[in-house]
Amino acid sequence: MITLTINDKEVSLDRPMSVLEAARQAGIKIPTLCYHEALKPYGGCRLCVVEVERMPKLQTACTLTAADGMVVRTESEMIAKVRRGILEFLLINHPLDCPYCDKAGECELQDLVNKYGATAGRYREEKRKVPESHKDHILTRNMERCIVCTRCVRMCNDVQGASAIAMMGRGGHTRMEPFSSASFNCEYCGNCLSVCPVGAILSRLYIHSFRPWQVDTEVETVCSYCGVGCSMVVQVRDDLIKRVVPRMGLGLNRGLLCSRGRFGYEYIHSQDRLKTPLVRRNGKLEQATWSEALRHVAERLTGIKKADGGSAIAGIASARCTNEENYVFQKFMRMACGSNNIDSLSRAGFAAAQKYLEELLGQGITANMIEGLKNSEVILVAGGDPGTVNPVLGLAIREAFRRGAKVAVVGHARGLERFTSIRLTPPLFREEEFLEELLAGVSRVRGLRGEKLDVDRGIRAISDAYPGISGLEGFDELKHALLDSPSTSIVLGSGLVQHSRGHRAIFAVAGLTYLLEARLYLLAERPNEQGLIDMGCVPEMLPGGRPLNNHDYTRKFEEAWGGPIPEEDGMTLMEIMEGAKEGRVRALYIMGDNPLVNLPGGPLIEEALKALDFLVVQDMFLTETGRMADVVLPAVGWSEKSGTYTNIERRIQLLRKAVGNSSGMEDWKIINDVSGMMGYPMAYEDAESIMDEIARVSPLYRDLTYREIGKGNSLWPYHGEPLRGEIHELPAAVNGTGSYTANFYLAPEKVLFHSGTTSRHSQALMRICPEPVLRIGPAAADTLGVREGDRVKVSTSSGSGEFPLSIDRTISDNRVLLSNNFEGSGVLRLMSYRLDPVTRAPGIEGCEATITRL
Amino acid sequence: MSVVELVKKVLFMEVLQGLALTFRHMVSPSVTRQYPLEKREPFPGSRGLHALVRDAETGKERCVGCGLCAAMCPSQCIHIYTSEGDDHKKIVDRYEIEVLRCVYCALCVEACPYAALTLTDHFEYCGYTRDEFYYTKERLLENWDKYMAGEKGMNYIKNFWRPRSSDFAAPSPERKGP
Fold first, then answer.
1. B88/A95 Cβ within 8 A
2. Are A194 and A255 in contact (CB under 8 A)?
3. Which residue of A has its CA nearest to B166?
4. Cα dihedral A644→A647→A650→A655 (10° resolution)
5. CB pairs under 8 A between A and B
6. Chain A from 132 to 191: CB within 8 A of any B CB
7. For A129-269, CATH number?
8. Is the ipTM here above 0.85?
9. Where are the domains of chain B?
10. What is the architecture, at CATH level 2, of domain B50-161?
11. What is the pTM of this model?
12. Hey, are the CB atoms on A127 and B84 less than 8 Å from each other?
């Protein structure tokens, strides 16, 4: 225990720390400019000087480690004089344009000058003149105001790992500059913006439009862009979202955000939002009143249910909606429509993998804290790029790499390009074989665990079939690293799941997780992919992950819901689509999703949606799918409603309402009303009353309240009873593989700046990344004779499209990557699919493409 | 009761004293002004209707929309909305004062770093609706033209509402916005 005295106050420390941290811990404020809690101490600004007894000179508190018996004084005449002098030096060049500068009011320099003085400068010469730079779409740089604290550069290099900016020039001419000198052209995380103490870096999204003290309300909420669920603060003036800011230390992201979260809020106030319900009359979508539209939906659904039974109705839930909305949706489908045909687009990725993993290893296998990644010794990343799908999770991997962990990447992950220790490039679309080989190699050395007999049996079958050695570069290094590692994390992305043999890759990953006792993370593109499953928006499970075919479980739900739950097996996503095409499904209710763009097999989906008798779409915007619907109902977005999201670590987090409603209604309320008209009244008052019911009926959420969730620590398994793996379905012993010899194979690429419908209506994100780009390897570019920026035509068996081309050094094989997440020109539409027999996820591997230069 | 008191009472001394005061005032000059007919010159620096200073050089408002006046205003009757202009400069889209809520404390004028806002010496204003007392930016600028134009306004600012910031380092002129 270290005990020191700061300002006559005795402070005891439980771990070694700097004098500055010790003072903060004791509630004593020492002024700083270059120090930031997210960054390493730098000792550049000299404002944190303190007097230490028996030390002849003033010491910088941020770099001085607290020692036992130290006597520190943080305020004295001499210290104040030094601080005043330093501030006077800073003001030599810092312009006094506070009334004009947007930072005024939350400017650290302004506050310090206000406190310590330097009321007039003695320097009579001209101030440094640097014109403000507006060359970037998102950030404004005003280098007159820069005080060279280097926080932005340290943030960019040491925390974000983007290394996009640096200090240039010397002495009084030092300034921060991006390497391209004009636009930043970086990951646009905006973390430099949030650490800048003065107005040197400002966001152009809200520049000059308000002053910090004019914010009416500040709402702590959760980001709606991906499955990480970063905490953020939404600042509102006059019912308009002015900006989204992180709060240091808040939530699992600890004050870091990514481009989507920080700059992607504009869609809420987009002019393109649906304003009234639309009903198709005489083949055209026309505006209608709410009561007309809802009555129409209820009548048509009741009619179809009477004529063909509940199984002719299907529902698609959404990972963009909250837990409450998904719960109400599945209850509506099961009880009001009498159908178990309920699935979501998450089936083409997260849900498929998650369900199979839980069957193998038990519920909650992916419930691992993201913080745990930072402490891992070996991290295996397969099937996706955490840096773009879940950027803040990607930061945790980068941090682990910097700390010395081994990061192994299977395939292509641009976000981890400079953070990879072992790069593995198995033959295209045959990653599952590589993972099985790795599993065989590991199990030979490690042996079986004997805990889960079925999984052991599967692993034995694999290690019998493979030699466990591979000529692939990096294979042995990875195998030994995994075997020697005291703590291993495995990150699985949807790339390996969207494969007709995807279950084999998932089994191999599950086997590795099981043998190495690793932490498993599943990347999730949407905010509530986990909650969706937990709420029972899958055909075979009720809320809390209770299987439908077990009467002990269904009885409890039937009692609570007041009626019988249909017994017929439900259809999964692609089966619903095929059923619609064949006429078995007559009505489809889609809540907050756009299958026409977000699912492979475009022509088939279009045919299926056309064949439907009745299609209802609830969304914020009129999407492609919405244009084909019979009824379109406007929903409200992220900051307009409250509810809960369950993130990839299965933490339940509270989404709080920040701005008033537009003309839409909450998804749960729409369904609540339709259900009432169909003779199954639900009568919920608000989202909280739904959560109360969930906590009552679902064994997983026992006694969970908003009050508790609001504290941010609702971690798996809450107070509930998780199921421990009950059903096992081992992979079919298919050892066959496809042969891939075509010139080019098309694969979707996730874009850091977009995530589908909502981001497309955020102007800032569109300015950063306006259109989909086709990426090809340098070798392929040579054979085609194309250069960066050329426009090319890509054709597949399902269609074609024209895109600008970009050459990517990291692609070494014959795959071409096309950004997905763009409406209108979605890559998935161009791809055909084959269903995985076990997970029922659509496999999109081996999509041959031809590329012609325009 | 003493003898003196008795004498005073008999002679109605108190009544006479009172009457003496009355008669004295009957002949002294009157201090009441017949207001609408007879007007008085306001004292220098008096606080009347608000005006936004029009910059003689640019012909536009001096205000850069820093919002300090609105932040200081105890009755919160100032509303300011700014945005980014064409050349990335800050422009003041709306500057509005609900005059009926104003208490004429002039803290807004004291807070202004650029002497862009004053209270004029015009104090006689009336209207039939509340809307007439909702002053927009244009009307506030008109007030300057009407009541403070030329030397008068500048002297007014110099003598009474000189911004405190001019005691310290002067803001560089080209950073002042429009």
1. no
2. yes
3. A120
4. -20
5. 61
6. 132, 134, 140
7. 3.30.70.20
8. no
9. 50-161
10. 2-Layer Sandwich (3.30)
11. 0.91
12. no
